[in-house]
Amino acid sequence: MTDIQETDIVSRRVNWHSKSQKDRLESRYRKEKIFKALAVSSLSIAIVALLVVLVSILTTGISGFKETRIELDIYLDRDIVGEVPNLDAAGLKDHYATININSLLIKSLQKKFPEVSSRRDVFSLLKLFSVGAQSDIRDTLIADPDLVGKTHTISLLSSSIVDMFIKGKILRDVEENNRKISDQQIAWLDQFELEGKISQNFNWTFFTNGDSREPELAGVRSATVGSLLTLFVTFIISFPIGVGTAIYLEEFAPKNRYTDLIEININNLAAVPSIIFGLLGLAIFIGFVGLPRSAPLVGGLTLALMTLPTIIITARAAIKAVPPSIKEAAIGLGASHMQMVFHHVLPLSMPGILTGSIIGMAQALGETAPLLMIGMVAFIVDTPGGIMEASTALPVQVYLWADSPERGFLEKTSAAIMVLLLFLIVMNGLAIWMRQKFEKKW
Amino acid sequence: MNMVNLTDELEAKADTSAPKIRAQKVNVHYSSNHALKDINLDIYPNEVTALIGPSGCGKSTFLRCLNRMNDTIDICKVEGRITLDGQNINDKKIDVVELRARVGMVFQKPNPFPKSIYDNVAYGPRIHGIAQNKQELDDIVWSSLKKAGLWNEVHDRLDASGTSLSGGQQQRLCIARTIAIEPEVILMDEPCSALDPIATAIIEELIEDLKNRYAIVIVTHSMQQAARISQKTAFFHLGKLLEHGDTTTIFTNPVHEKTKDYITGRYG
């Protein structure tokens, strides 16, 4: 008080209408305008980039959800099929696995195109159809055994090259040597087209099949199941440990140098490149513990290591955000520290914890690098039945297909990315929904 | 409250002559900051003891010593002897949870749990296992709300969130929550500072009423409030207890010059 009285108090009046004040005002407005323009432009660039990505994926990928089929009259020759044994569907399936379906197809094709005689031409005619066409014929035989000895029109899956041609991905006016489909094959296709035998359907195979060497038969089922199993393991491991760690560090741990050190290291872990976690998983879970390679269990454990820091950091932030007044109220009523945490702090921070965990899970879902290290990059056709079986994951499947030379895998890659993105959108939507449902106001 | 009334009560209850809480040579340090210096103060049952003094003088710190709320602050060190019914509350044998159930607390800012009104009041009885069944719990909740003067306003919406009430109602809910576990002492840390004059008047009436059953210690910045509701007043200044005694004496005939300046509004 006295200090102020001793110094001279000079009363200054500001002239708000002076030139310098006017300039100040203008320069302030100018700065605000520049800042706003910068923000808007960076936001627009981001939106444009996102749109470009989405549009390019959509335009390449959307056709991946369609398959091309060619109708053909197949004479189900009794000489080749043989007598129908009295078996149930499963037994029939085994039975028909041994017969030469291919010769049925060849005979029917030769009947349709009598002028084709050389082995080479027959082979290239056969090339119009997928290997999967054989299972189409087989399925017909299993569904209706009475058809044996008769001629039946079956819709057969076309090969990937035909599929690409029909979808316009392989162009007719390219020189013959530079395209995978010959002029002769195009002529045959034109004939089919003229007769209205070619159709495009929704590609259920993409969702019911595992990976395949043939693009038209490749699907995301085994990768999706593998991803879900992996995520399940990740969640089971990382959620309880992560939340427990966060509660301990935030509410119970003494504040000293050691906890500071732990905190710094957790924050650093969040920034460690994910492939390092893959190496760690390889060394510990496969090398040391001896768990099977390519298994969702190992993938889940590895991804759990990677997700833990994210969950711990977000959970700690959520716990810290609980108002101290609520904690004091509980303590003041005679709640023990433990009761305070589990009755009040945890329920109130749950929306934040769940949001953080789901974001962490989404991150784990999209992670490829650590899975490469532990062998989940293998070519897996069968759908894994458990967490110990060999499996792959969606992002790894994308990576594998993107690496394949066949033209048909291009659209499969984009289609698989769309499936992956759909999962991510659903998970993030879930996070938002949970946040709004459980959030309490105080 | 006048002296005649007070003596009536003193005569009515024989054990009121013994202090409920006795603080002897209490010193509190926050790291290097010596926040309370040699405080000696007795709190009597069925009385309101007001703690007054300028901001930062240590009255809230002292209040929080009485139910060991300062335990939650790592850097806070409490020395000296505080007894509740002759028992040292800082004794290792004393369970802090039981202590806080016996010495309840109402905070400056109303802090109901973001739960229903019913659950707010029922929380204490639940964690202490006071009610044997649902019927008993209902009785405790209803009578606590009645004692806190909130029953008429909320009886038809006990499922509504405690945070949906007005500020004054929230504070009375907090009082109901505190008295639901039947404490022996209630500590109030500026309970009316966030409230308007009407809500304040209601709370003051409530305190007047509650004092018949509990010992009440209240921290307040309002001289008028201290004069209106308390029987004993303690004046804190810079971590020291400068003066304490009957409210009427402190307000009419303060010994210390600083006390006089403070209560007349010339200082602080």
Q: How do the helices and strands line up, and which of them pair or pack?
A:
The complex is a heterodimer of chains A (442) and B (268).
Chain A: H1 2-6, H2 19-61, E1 66-75, H3 78-81, H4 89-97, H5 101-112, H6 119-126, H7 132-143, E2 151-157, H8 160-166, H9 183-194, E3 198-202, H10 205-208, H11 221-252, H12 257-269, H13 274-288, H14 296-320, H15 324-332, H16 337-365, H17 369-373, H18 394-402, H19 408-438
Antiparallel strand pairs in A: 1-2, 1-3
Helix pairs in contact in A: 2-19, 4-7, 11-14, 11-16, 11-18, 13-14, 14-16, 15-16, 16-19, 18-19
Chain B: H1 3-12, E1 21-30, E2 33-43, E3 48-52, H2 59-66, E4 76-84, E5 87-88, H3 96-102, E6 103-106, H4 117-128, H5 134-147, H6 151-154, H7 167-179, E7 185-189, H8 197-210, E8 215-219, H9 223-229, E9 232-237, E10 240-246, H10 247-252, H11 257-263
Parallel strand pairs in B: 3-8, 3-9, 6-7, 7-8
Antiparallel strand pairs in B: 1-2, 1-4, 4-5, 9-10
Helix pairs in contact in B: 4-5, 4-7, 5-7, 7-8
Task: Describe the protein's architecture and organization.
The complex is a heterodimer of chains A (442) and B (268). Chain A has helices at residues 2-6, 19-61, 78-81, 89-97, 101-112, 119-126, 132-143, 160-166, 183-194, 205-208, 221-252, 257-269, 274-288, 296-320, 324-332, 337-365, 369-373, 394-402, 408-438; strands spanning 66-75, 151-157, 198-202. Chain A has 442 residues and is mostly helical. Chain A has two domains: 66-202, no CATH class; 221-438, MetI-like fold (Orthogonal Bundle). In chain A, helix 11 (221-252) packs parallel to helix 14, helix 13 (274-288) crosses helix 14 and helix 15 (324-332) runs antiparallel to helix 16 (337-365). Chain B has helices at residues 3-12, 59-66, 96-102, 117-128, 134-147, 151-154, 167-179, 197-210, 223-229, 247-252, 257-263; strands at residues 21-30, 33-43, 48-52, 76-84, 87-88, 103-106, 185-189, 215-219, 232-237, 240-246. In chain B, strand 4 and strand 5 (87-88) form a beta hairpin. In chain B, helix 4 packs across helix 5 and helix 4 (117-128) runs parallel beside helix 7 (167-179). Residues 1-14 of chain B have low confidence and may be disordered. The chains are: A mainly alpha (442), B alpha/beta (268). Chains A and B meet through helix 15 and helix 16 of A and helix 3, helix 4 and helix 7 of B.
